[in-house]
Amino acid sequence: AQSVTQLGSHVSVSEGALVLLRCNYSSSVPPYLFWYVQYPNQGLQLLLKYTTGATLVKGINGFEAEFKKSETSFHLTKPSAHMSDAAEYFCAVSPSGYQKVTFGTGTKLQVIP
Amino acid sequence: GAGVSQSPSNKVTEKGKDVELRCDPISGHTALYWYRQSLGQGLEFLIYFQGNSAPDKSGLPSDRFSAERTGGSVSTLTIQRTQQEDSAVYLCASWTKNTGELFFGEGSRLTVL
């Protein structure tokens, strides 16, 4: 079985401040981990993914995430928030690419000018 | 087409009626997923297909829900005797081993009156 927990359904940051969105997972096998973003009135798109290899992964728009096996975490960060980052962010886990992908409940990011 | 196509984009129906939602995945994508997105509930997994078979249909909420995929391509999600709690956005995604990511459609918004 696998599951994802996203801490904080809503997060607010000031423009230029650090963005930190938390994700913890459970998986009985080495996981594939993903962050997807949904901008207002748009579909979901992939931000970044971890499959194997380097535990720090970089994605689009300056976002990155680090896979920490000991903490079962895959937190998403960005050094400096931009107004255009306001969106809903979803963390997801899969035992492999060809199997069930389980999503968290999402975190809405608000960026305050 | 270039992306995942879902139809209808919006469907309003009366309680007790049956509805069919269609997903046309990206050509060549072998896996296809259905999710349900309700306000505050994140993405709820329904079912996924590898080719025409469904290894995991554990997320279907009740026996009123069914899905099929034919020719390794188009999929249909059918909801019989709709209830008001079925109101949600139903999302389809297809997956390819080449990129290891899910490509989402724009969704079908179902409203049950």
Question: Can you describe this structure in just a few lines?
Answer:
The complex is a heterodimer of chains A (113) and B (113). By secondary structure, chain A is mainly beta.
Characteristics of this structure?
heterodimer; A: 113 residues; mainly beta; six-stranded mixed beta sheet; five-stranded antiparallel beta sheet; globular; B: 113 residues; seven-stranded mixed beta sheet; four-stranded antiparallel beta sheet; 11 strands; 0% helix
List the helices and strands and how they pair.
The complex is a heterodimer of chains A (113) and B (113).
Chain A (H helix, E strand, L loop, with lengths): L1 E6 L2 E5 L4 E9 L4 E7 L5 E7 L5 E3 L5 E5 L4 E6 L8 E8 L7 E2 L3 E6 L1
Parallel strand pairs in A: 2-11
Antiparallel strand pairs in A: 1-3, 3-8, 4-5, 4-9, 6-7, 7-8, 9-10, 9-11
Chain B lengths: L4 E3 L2 E4 L5 E6 L6 E8 L3 E9 L2 E4 L8 E5 L5 E5 L8 E8 L6 E3 L3 E5 L1
Parallel strand pairs in B: 2-11
Antiparallel strand pairs in B: 1-3, 3-8, 4-5, 4-9, 5-6, 7-8, 9-10, 9-11
Please explain how this structure is put together:
The complex is a heterodimer of chains A (113) and B (113). Chain A contains no helices and eleven strands. Chain A starts with a strand and ends with a strand. Chain A is globular and about 40 Å long. Chain A is 0% helix and 57% strand. Chain A has strands at residues 2-7, 10-14, 19-27, 32-38, 44-50, 56-58, 64-68, 73-78, 87-94, 102-103, 107-112. Chain A is mostly beta strands and 113 residues long. In chain A, the strands form two sheets. In chain A, strands 2, 4, 5, 9, 10 and 11 form a six-stranded mixed beta sheet that branches. In chain A, strands 1-3-8-7-6 form a five-stranded antiparallel beta sheet, with no helix packed on it. The model of chain A has no long low-confidence stretch (mean pLDDT 93). Chain B is mainly β. Chain B has strands at 5-7, 10-13, 19-24, 31-38, 42-50, 53-56, 65-69, 75-79, 88-95, 102-104, 108-112. In chain B, strands 2, 4, 5, 6, 9, 10 and 11 form a seven-stranded mixed beta sheet that branches. Chain B has a four-stranded antiparallel beta sheet with strand order 1-3-8-7, with no helix packed on it. The mean pLDDT of chain B is 93.
